[in-house]
Inverse folding.
């Protein structure tokens, strides 16, 4: 006969798992941020993520952006086309391999990234401050950074290192 503790496990729901909780939080926060970013600069979170990586690592290749952003290459290609069309990013042929392109932020792209960064800090503060103190937000950030470092190290063992802006 199972112990009461084992019997209780069957009544647990998906909200028990950290991955599920993080996914819900991420989805809600991104949804709220998308509308604010769209109003500010006409870009959603995904496009801004790509722009931020290119601004942080000028000359980066699309393959590297795909790995760092966790965006599949076909979708990334569409996002890059939009950023290039809007003159936020430019691309050049890679000097070492003509099959690859390097991606560079334009002055307008850098300005948009800076404006979005300021808005992002404000949005995050507005979303988290009603529930978490400043110290709790700092602790949460520290814990999430530790998790990201662990997974980046795992990725480095399995493939190229992941650098996240």
């Amino acid at each position: 006969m199972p112990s009461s503790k084992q019997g209780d496990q069957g009544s647990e729901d998906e909200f028990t798992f950290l991955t599920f909780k993080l996914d819900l939080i991420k989805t809600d926060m991104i949804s709220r941020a998308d509308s604010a970013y769209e109003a500010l600069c006409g870009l959603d979170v995904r496009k801004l993520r790509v722009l931020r990586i290119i601004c942080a690592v000028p000359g980066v290749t699309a393959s590297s952006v795909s790995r760092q952003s966790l965006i599949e290459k076909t979708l990334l290609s569409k996002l890059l086309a939009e950023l290039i069309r809007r003159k936020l990013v430019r691309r050049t042929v890679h000097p070492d391999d003509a099959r690859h392109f390097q991606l560079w932020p334009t002055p307008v792209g850098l300005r948009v990234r800076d404006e979005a960064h300021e808005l992002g800090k404000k949005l995050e503060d507005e979303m988290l401050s009603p529930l978490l103190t400043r110290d709790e937000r700092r602790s949460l950030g520290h814990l999430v950074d530790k998790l990201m470092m662990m997974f980046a190290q795992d990725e480095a063992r399995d493939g190229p290192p992941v650098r996240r802006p």
